[in-house]
Design goal:
Elements lengths: L6 H9 L5 H18 L6 H10 L3 H9 L3 H29 L11 H18 L2 H23 L2 H7 L6 H14 L2 H31 L16 H10 L10
Helix pairs in contact: 1-2, 2-7, 3-5, 5-6, 7-9, 9-10, 10-11
Bound molecules: zinc ion (2 copies).
Length: 250
């Protein structure tokens, strides 16, 4: 697949002092997409058609709701819910034709296929998300640019070495991509760097989490917090990718 190469956002993320530059890139793309779908552009007919078709996942519904554009959000949902109602009506009328053993989940014959189709139509309605799809396109091209810079610009691996490293999900995605794009020597250097960073971050996090949990013992109430105040957030964001709190860039 051919990706658009835009090095500036990748360099910006790597130069920031955040816990995972890839989480930061993802967040920026996500913020931009959520803002787009909270603005006037969603009234454009072609965008409206796509929103009606795909809808939003629960995570992005929450982010749209938090934008507090109640009327814009409700207008999108009015249009999407109306189209969804059409899909449900079609599903209802298809069930009237099939009849017979359609409720036999594990049986053979026509009924089984109908039940599977019902499930897939319903899961498509609730599981697709236009924001996830948009993010994915941009995000893949940023990841590709990340690997491209690592491969072609000697300053990039050096800059990466002075970051705090990546979260585990993003190390996984990047190493997966790097396997096909880097030569053996480059891959092994990237692998060592990322695993070393994750390992030392985890060691620190484990020590801080231990300190955090000890503070709940009344006998340690007077002990200083040290670095343990945000230990739980850091552990979650390192292991699951950024999902708690704001991304700190300083
Ligand atoms: Zn990350
Ligand atoms: Zn989504």
């Amino acid at each position: 697949m051919k990706y658009h190469i835009d090095t500036i956002p990748v360099w910006d993320a790597v130069k920031s002092a955040c816990d995972c530059p890839v989480c930061l890139m993802y967040k920026k793309i996500e913020d931009k997409s959520v803002e787009f779908f909270s603005g006037a552009s969603v009234m454009e007919p072609d965008i409206r058609v796509q929103v009606n078709q795909k809808g939003f996942c629960s995570h992005h519904q929450q982010l749209l709701y938090a934008q507090k554009n109640r009327l814009g959000h409700a207008l999108m949902m009015l249009s999407h819910a109306t189209e969804t109602l059409d899909k449900i009506k079609k599903l209802q009328s298809s069930s009237r034709v099939s009849g017979g053993s359609r409720f036999t989940l594990f049986g053979k014959g026509k009924g089984t296929a109908d039940v599977c189709n019902d499930a897939s139509v319903l899961s498509q309605i609730s599981g697709s998300c236009i924001i996830c799809d948009r993010i994915d396109d941009d995000f893949q091209s940023y990841l590709y640019t990340f690997i491209h810079l690592y491969k072609t610009d000697p300053a990039f691996p050096k800059a990466l070495a002075s970051t705090k490293g990546l979260c585990i999900p993003h190390a996984s995605v990047l190493l997966g991509m790097a396997q096909n794009e880097l030569n053996g020597e480059q891959y092994s250097a990237l692998r060592s760097l990322l695993l070393e960073k994750i390992s030392s971050n985890l060691e620190q996090t484990v020590a801080d989490l231990d300190g955090f949990t000890r503070k709940f013992d009344y006998r340690n109430a007077d002990q200083p917090w040290g670095n343990s105040r945000d230990a739980n957030e850091r552990a979650i964001n390192l292991i699951n990718g950024h999902c708690i709190g704001n991304i700190k860039t300083k």
